């Protein structure tokens, strides 16, 4: 099985080191008008993400995690409150972030190489065809999709599509990654491999990351800080610093007793919210 090939990460920066604020949400609320009703999806969320932090958002389905990513990406404006990126309000599409949405949104009528190449053209409009070819080949190699350049998305497995989407995002060289369930549909082994390689990549490029995941284990393995949301409307229920050093070895970390202790602590917060969200959905029917 091909895996991401990355050089060894540079020395880590400790998670507790004081850093500049990269992303700020201040008293953010979001309402959606749907079927003649107004639904509050997110309520009173204040959150700061320092640069180079790896933040994970967890919470029950429908609590507004994707909505938060959409706002940081500048695709949705909050109903109340403000979103800032590098000290300026986000008022339009935020071109400094790479956004990997839950659906991979690869263009079905384009090959893998073209899907990635189009993203490069959007970023570097004046690049030559040779430069485009070179960068696309580099990205394909990086995500281990060599040999599949001319395949169309429908000809790829779920994991390969995720890799293609990852390459398409990385060719922009974003300073910040917004990842919405990036490994959701993958089998456990591939998931672990990609988690590990993503950790290396983030470390090497010193990126800021917000990861949305349903998988609490994934959140604790990867993040410097985990935020637990309540069921809808999403509010912050708990925030936990994850004290493990970087670079991390996700394969080894999950067997440590400290890992289990933190996982259990966060699960105790989360399980009530899952119960509340299921109760809420039944009540709404
Ligand atoms: N464009 C929209 N119009 C109407 N309602 C919406 C819209 N987008 C999201 N919602 C609603 O807002 C709430 C939050 O949705 P969101 O997708 O952010 O949740 P989530 O936590 O990411 O869920 P999941 O974990 O299932 O992906 C949900 O109740 C959803 O139905």
UniProtKB/TrEMBL annotation:
InterPro entries recorded: AAA+_ATPase (IPR003593), ABC_transporter-like_ATP-bd (IPR003439), ABC_transporter-like_CS (IPR017871), ABC_transporter_ATP-bind (IPR050166), P-loop_NTPase (IPR027417)
Keywords assigned by UniProt, alphabetized: ATP-binding, Nucleotide-binding, Transport
Record-annotated ABC transporter domain positions: 25-256
Record-level Gene Ontology MF annotations: ATP binding
Organism superkingdom: Bacteria
GTP-binding listed as a keyword: no
Family, similarity comment: Belongs to the ABC transporter superfamily.
Listed PANTHER family: ALIPHATIC SULFONATES IMPORT ATP-BINDING PROTEIN SSUB (PTHR42788:SF13), TAURINE IMPORT ATP-BINDING PROTEIN-RELATED (PTHR42788)
Official protein name in the record: ABC transporter ATP-binding protein
Organism of provenance: Aquibium pacificus
């Amino acid at each position: 099985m091909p895996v991401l090939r990355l050089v060894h990460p540079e020395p880590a920066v400790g998670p507790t080191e004081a850093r500049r604020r990269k992303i700020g949400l201040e008293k953010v609320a979001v309402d959606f008008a749907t079927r003649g009703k107004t639904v509050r999806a997110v309520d009173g969320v204040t959150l700061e993400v320092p640069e180079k932090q790896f933040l994970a958002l967890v919470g029950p389905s429908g609590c507004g995690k994707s909505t938060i990513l959409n706002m940081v990406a500048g695709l949705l404006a909050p109903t109340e409150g403000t979103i800032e990126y590098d000290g300026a309000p986000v008022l339009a599409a935020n071109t400094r972030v790479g956004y990997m949405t839950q659906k991979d949104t690869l263009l079905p009528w384009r090959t893998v190489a073209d899907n990635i190449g189009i993203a490069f053209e959007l970023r570097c409009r004046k690049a030559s065809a040779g430069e485009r070819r070179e960068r696309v080949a580099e990205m394909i190699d990086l995500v281990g999709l060599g040999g599949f350049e001319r395949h169309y998305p429908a000809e790829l497995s779920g994991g390969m599509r995720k890799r293609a989407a990852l390459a398409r995002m990385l060719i922009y060289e974003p300073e910040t990654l917004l990842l919405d369930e990036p490994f959701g549909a993958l089998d456990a082994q591939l998931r672990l491999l990609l988690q590990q390689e993503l950790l290396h990549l983030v470390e090497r490029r010193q990126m800021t990351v917000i990861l949305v995941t349903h998988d609490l284990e994934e959140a604790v393995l990867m993040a410097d800080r985990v935020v637990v949301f309540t069921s809808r409307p999403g509010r912050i229920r708990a925030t936990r610093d994850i004290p493990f050093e970087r670079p991390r070895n996700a394969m080894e970390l999950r067997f440590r007793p400290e890992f289990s202790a933190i996982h259990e602590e966060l699960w105790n917060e989360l399980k009530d919210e899952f119960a509340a969200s299921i109760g809420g959905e039944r009540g709404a029917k």
